[in-house]
Amino acid sequence: MAYAWIVWLILAALFLGAEVLTPGFFLLWFGVGALVAALIAALGVGSLAAQLIVFLVVSTALVIASRTIFERFFVRPDAGNGLRTGAETMLGQVGTVVEPSRGALHEAAVRVYGSVWTALPVDGEDPLREGETVSVERIDGNTIYVRRRERRALRFSESPD
Predict the structure, then answer these.
(1) More confidently predicted of 56 and 68
(2) pLDDT digits (tens, 9 = 90+) for 145-154
(3) Which DSSP string corresponds to the chain?
(4) Quick one: 48 and 9 in the same domain?
(5) What pLDDT does residue 141 have?
(6) Which of 18, 79, 140, 148 has its CA 20 to 30 A from that of 95?
């Protein structure tokens, strides 16, 4: 087949055109494989089976190689202490008790980041008193569990002396 290279070029153009319309880099490598098959067809390899094998080997190798390369350079390993967002940013933050503990669970109100939260003392802590400084230990739904701090929180205008 003397014009097989033209068929491979058309196939490559179709793969490359389809790649533009799809997310990821998958069809791109089949387009490159078709270009290589077109090259060997143009150089005189007349066997359609040989062209097809070259197409499949090149395309498969590029797909496997690209996955390895993309994982190495674009996927970051999770360090376990990644960026915290939302309510998770409150863990370890300092707040002030604005309403003392009441009831059997010693439920209180604590201001953290300017918002007032329902707070419970962690196990082993005494009931909370108004004005005490606490730190957030954990969050469960819309309730925070707090532990007393030895020192009160400093305001921005205060120095730590």
Answers:
(1) 56
(2) 999 987 655 5
(3) -TTHHHHHHHHHHHHHHHHHHSSSSSHHHHHHHHHHHHHHHHTT---HHHHHHHHHHHHHHHHHHHHHHHHHHH-PPP-SS----GGGGGTT-EEEEEEEEETTTTEEEEEETTEEEEEEEPTTPPPP-TT-EEEEEEEETTEEEEEE-SSPPPPTT----
(4) yes
(5) 87
(6) 79
